[in-house]
Amino acid sequence: MEYTLLTDLEPHKKHATIQVCITRKWLFRGANDNAPLQHVDMILSDQKGNAIYAEIPANLANQKAPDIEEGRIYNISRFRVCAAKNGFKVVDGDKMIQFTFYTIVKRVIDPPTVFPKYIYRLTPFDQIESNIQTKPNFLGMFLVS
């Protein structure tokens, strides 16, 4: 089966099927961790190392999210491609994926081993301070000793 690369997704492509690794998955509740769930967020990566942000709305979270695990490979179809959010971007790009009631997610049983394990973009140390008061990117850090 032929899969669409994440870079080739467009809002008008209604019948795209992607094969992706769930690189990261988390619950978004807003500013308060005890607040109601707003959506389930994910970073998806394809075999070429492209990444895209994906979101499962709260009303579909119980139906769509429980069977999706970080580090696993899935074939996903019947989703919506739309403009990426303007603030707190976790990956570069102008598009994102929204799951719908019709989205189909199938785990790949014998996946290829070519998916990258981590997706990241390094910010040069001298540019970190200039990004603190802006919201175009979500900044995180990890330390390696």
From TrEMBL:
Residues 3-107 form the Replication protein A 70 kDa DNA-binding subunit B/D first OB fold domain. Pfam families: DUF223 (PF02721). This is Replication protein A 70 kDa DNA-binding subunit B/D first OB fold domain-containing protein. It comes from the Eukaryota. InterPro entries: NA-bd_OB-fold, RFA1B/D_OB_1st. Gene3D superfamilies: Nucleic acid-binding proteins (2.40.50.140). SUPFAM superfamilies: Nucleic acid-binding proteins. PANTHER family: OS03G0429900 PROTEIN, RETROTRANSPOSON-LIKE PROTEIN.
